UniProtKB/TrEMBL annotation:
Gene Ontology MF annotations: ATP binding; ATP hydrolysis activity
KW Nucleotide-binding (keyword) present: yes
Record lineage: Bacteria, Bacillati, Actinomycetota, Actinomycetes, Streptosporangiales
Record has Transport as a keyword: yes
CDD domains hit by this protein: ABC_NrtD_SsuB_transporters
One Pfam family recorded for the sequence: ABC_tran
PANTHER family cross-referenced by the UniProt entry: ALIPHATIC SULFONATES IMPORT ATP-BINDING PROTEIN SSUB, TAURINE IMPORT ATP-BINDING PROTEIN-RELATED
Protein name: NitT/TauT family transport system ATP-binding protein
Domain (ABC transporter): residue spans on this chain: 8-235
Keywords: ATP-binding, Nucleotide-binding, Transport
Length: 260
C-alpha cells in the first residue's frame, strides 16, 4: 500500500518578467510519507517557498503535477503557516484562531472546544480578547500556529515560520513545535534556512540546488523519537549539520548571486 501523502512529479515553475522569463524551480520529483515531518533547505531564491505554494494549491506549476492523498472527507487537506504571521489585525486572537473553523462551518460547540484547547496549548489562553497589535512577534506566530492546528489539516505546510524571531525565541518555538508534532503526528512540510532547525525537527531533510531549484540530496535524520532539543549538544548532531552544510555550500558556490 502506498503510504505517501504527497507526490510531486516533474514540477517546474517559470515566472515572466517583462519580456524575459525566469525558471525558478525544477524539475522536481518528491514524495512525502504519511505522518512524516519533512524539512526542505536550500540557497536563497532556489524556489523552496514556490514549491510549498504549489503544494498548497496557491500557485500553479508551469509543468508537472502534485498529487495529495486524502484520508478524510471532513478534515481540510492543507493548512499553511507563513513567515509573516498572516493574521488579521482587526480580529482578536480568539477570532483569528477560529477563522478557519468559521470558513469550514464547523459547529459552534466543536469550534469553541478546539479554539479553547489550542489557545491553552500555545500559551494564549489569557490573550483571547487581545488584538495582534498588542502582541510580540513570538505571540503572533503562536496565533498562526494555533489557527493552523485548530482546523486539524491532514497536511501542515510551514514556510520559514520562525525566521523573523530572535535566536532565543526561535529556539523556544522550535521546542514547542517539536513537542506539539510528537503528540500530534500529522504530515508536515517545513521550509527553513536553518540547518539546526531542520535536523532537530525533521525525519528527513531535502537539500535543494541553487535556482532553478532541484532536489540534490535527501538526508534521513537518524535521531529517535521522541526527540529533545538537547540532541543539539551531541557530536552526531554537529556531524550531520556539517554534512548538510557541505552540500549547501557546494550549491551556493554554483550560484552567481552568492559568488564573489
Amino acid at each position: 500500500m502506498n503510504d505517501n501523502r504527497v507526490a510531486v512529479r516533474g514540477v517546474e515553475r517559470v515566472f515572466a518578467s517583462g519580456h524575459a522569463t525566469v525558471k525558478a524551480l525544477g524539475p522536481i520529483d518528491l514524495d512525502v510519507r504519511d505522518g512524516e515531518f519533512l524539512c526542505i533547505v536550500g540557497p536563497s531564491g532556489c524556489g523552496k517557498s514556490t514549491l510549498l505554494r504549489i503544494i498548497a494549491g496557491l500557485l500553479s506549476p508551469s509543468d508537472g503535477e502534485v498529487s495529495l492523498r486524502t484520508t478524510s472527507k471532513e478534515a481540510p487537506l492543507t493548512s499553511v503557516v507563513f513567515q509573516d504571521y498572516s493574521i488579521f489585525p482587526w480580529k482578536t486572537v480568539e477570532a483569528n484562531v477560529r477563522f478557519g473553523l468559521d470558513i469550514a462551518k464547523v459547529p459552534g460547540s466543536v469550534s469553541k472546544e478546539r479554539v479553547s484547547r489550542w489557545l491553552t496549548r500555545l500559551g494564549l489562553k489569557d490573550f483571547g480578547g487581545a488584538y495582534p497589535a498588542t502582541l510580540s512577534g513570538g505571540m503572533k506566530q503562536r496565533v498562526s500556529i494555533a489557527r493552523a492546528f485548530a482546523v486539524e489539516p491532514q497536511i501542515l505546510l510551514m514556510d520559514e515560520p520562525f525566521a523573523a524571531l530572535d535566536a532565543q525565541l526561535r529556539q523556544v518555538m522550535q521546542a514547542e513545535l517539536l513537542e506539539l508534532w510528537q503528540e500530534d503526528g500529522r504530515t508536515v512540510i517545513f521550509i527553513t534556512h536553518n540547518l539546526d532547525e531542520a535536523i532537530l525537527l525533521g525525519d528527513r531533510v531535502i537539500v535543494m540546488s541553487s535556482r532553478p531549484g532541484r532536489v540534490v540530496a535527501e538526508v534521513d535524520v537518524p535521531f529517535a523519537r521522541p526527540r529533545s532539543p538537547e540532541i543539539r549538544r551531541s557530536s552526531e548532531f554537529a556531524e550531520l549539520e556539517g554534512e548538510i552544510w557541505d552540500l549547501l555550500r557546494s550549491e551556493m558556490k554554483t550560484d552567481p548571486r552568492t559568488s564573489a
